[in-house]
Amino acid sequence: MRADRLLSLVLLLRHRGRTTAAVLARELEVSERTVLRDVEALSAAGIPVYAERGRHGGFALLPGFTTDLTGLTPGEAVALLGSGATSTPGALGLGPEFASAMRKIVAALPDAAREQATDAAGRVLVRRGGWLRDTDDGATTDVLTAVQRAVFGGVRLRIRYRTGTRPGAEPGPAAERVVDPVGLVQASGRWYLLALRDGEDRTYRVSRIEEAEPLAEPAHRPEGVDLEELWLRRREDFRARRPGVRVRLALPADRRDALSAVTVDEERTRDGTTEVVAAFGDLVHAGRALWPLLPDVRVLDPPELVTALRERARAAVVALG
C-alpha cells in the first residue's frame, strides 16, 4: 500500500510542480506527518525531491526528472481522462483508485502530449443527468466522429441541424449553421454539442445533426472553460424556460433504482416507501417515460396522467385478447 502511495506522490509532484504538504496530504488521504515521512523515503531512494521553505514553499522534483510508466498515446489518454466524470468511478465505489490512475496516466505522458491530452479531455464530459430524463441517443457514428474532431481539434463546425418538435408534429426542415464548438457532453445516453453561434450560447443534440463538417478555421472558444459548470448552467436555463409538468410518484424504497432515468426534484422515504416529485417536459413526455416503469412505480398525481396511463393499460389488455 505504501509503495502505491509513494508512486502517487511522485506523480502528483511530476504533474503539479511545487505542492504543499497540506495539499499532498489531502490528495493522498493521509496526514501531513505521513507525507513528510514519504518525502524522506523518496529522497533516500534517490528520487530528486526537495523542499522549498517560505510562504509559497512546498515540495518539488528537480527540473528534468521524468517518469515513463505507460505506452499510452495522447488519444488513448484522452479517452481515459474524458471518462473521469464523478458519476462513473463514484458510482462504482472507485473514486480514490480512479483518481490515482488518472494521475499516473497524466504524469507518464511526455510534456507536449500531456498538455494536448489534458486540453482535449477538458472538452468532453460524461454525466448521468440529461435535460429531463435518460434516453437512447440515436446519433450516427459519422456525425459524432465529425463533431468530436471539431471539438478536439479546436476548429469551427458546419452542421445541418433539425430542431425539435412536439410529439405528433411533423419535423421541420434542417437548417445549416456554422458554430464554434466549446465542448461535447454525454448525459443520460445522449450526446450534446455545446457551442457558440455568432457569439451566443447554443446547445445542440447530436442525434438531430444530419450532417457535420469540421472547417479549417480556428474556433472562437473562451479561455478557461469549465465544461461541467457550463453544462449545469445551460441545463438549468433550459428547465427555467420550459417548466413542463411535475409528477408525484411512489415506489418501494428498495426499488429506488427504477427511477435512475428520471429527473427528481423532491424525494422522501417513509415506512419503506419512497415518494418523489419528478420533472417532465409535458404529459405526453411523462407518459412515455413512465410507462416502462409500471407497475414498480405508482403515479399519484396529476390526475390526467393517471387517467391516461389507465386508459393505455386497458387498451393493452384488450389488444392482448
TrEMBL record:
<dbReference type="Pfam" id="PF08279">
    <property type="entry name" value="HTH_11"/>
</dbReference>
<dbReference type="InterPro" id="IPR028349">
    <property type="entry name" value="PafC-like"/>
</dbReference>
<dbReference type="Pfam" id="PF13280">
    <property type="entry name" value="WYL"/>
</dbReference>
<feature type="domain" description="HTH deoR-type">
    <location>
        <begin position="2"/>
        <end position="61"/>
    </location>
</feature>
<keyword id="KW-0805">Transcription regulation</keyword>
<keyword id="KW-0804">Transcription</keyword>
<protein>
    <submittedName>
        <fullName>WYL domain-containing protein</fullName>
    </submittedName>
</protein>
<dbReference type="Pfam" id="PF25583">
    <property type="entry name" value="WCX"/>
</dbReference>
<dbReference type="InterPro" id="IPR057727">
    <property type="entry name" value="WCX_dom"/>
</dbReference>
<dbReference type="InterPro" id="IPR026881">
    <property type="entry name" value="WYL_dom"/>
</dbReference>
<dbReference type="InterPro" id="IPR036388">
    <property type="entry name" value="WH-like_DNA-bd_sf"/>
</dbReference>
<dbReference type="InterPro" id="IPR013196">
    <property type="entry name" value="HTH_11"/>
</dbReference>
<dbReference type="InterPro" id="IPR001034">
    <property type="entry name" value="DeoR_HTH"/>
</dbReference>
<dbReference type="InterPro" id="IPR051534">
    <property type="entry name" value="CBASS_pafABC_assoc_protein"/>
</dbReference>
<dbReference type="InterPro" id="IPR036390">
    <property type="entry name" value="WH_DNA-bd_sf"/>
</dbReference>
